[in-house]
């Protein structure tokens, strides 16, 4: 096909496969920038959160719904801030014929707590096992904090 039809813009009547129109701004590579040597980039504050604990939970309307990607993003942010990530510490639930959707960690995510709620329902309809899984994660963070504080006291 030599002619582009059914479109508008600078390339709508082109007779060749290439278009000499200017590339849209969103398609251009960003201009190179160099951070100031006097201060760290603003994306990385002066480690105010360093050595603190972090954990994450996520909820979406789909069973998968990119939950793992969301938790990985949280974990990367925590690492960039010098934080310690606390994982769920549970084996996957609801993955055998004897299991049920009432098991803890029913969605099988290890990095943090994951939940699924239908998109036309409110927060009061979060599955009870997902709430219990999130509570488990909260308890795990609290236990990890106690261990970390005891270890710091022993070292000091």
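^ Assign residues to that structure.
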């Amino acid at each position: 096909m030599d002619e582009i039809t059914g479109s508008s813009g600078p390339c709508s009547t082109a007779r060749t496969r290439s278009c000499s129109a200017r590339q849209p701004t969103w398609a251009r590579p960003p201009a190179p920038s160099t951070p100031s040597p006097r201060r760290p980039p603003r994306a990385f504050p002066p480690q105010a959160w360093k050595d603190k604990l972090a954990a994450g939970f996520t909820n979406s309307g789909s069973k998968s719904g990119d939950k793992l990607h969301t938790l990985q993003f949280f974990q990367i942010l925590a690492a960039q801030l010098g934080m310690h990530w606390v994982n769920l510490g549970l084996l996957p639930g609801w993955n055998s014929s004897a299991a049920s959707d009432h098991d803890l960690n029913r969605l099988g995510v290890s990095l943090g707590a994951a939940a699924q709620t239908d998109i036309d329902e409110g927060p009061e309809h979060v599955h009870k096992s997902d709430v219990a899984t999130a509570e488990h994660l909260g308890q795990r963070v609290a236990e990890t904090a106690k261990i970390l504080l005891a270890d710091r006291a022993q070292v000091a």
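Residues 53-155 form one domain.
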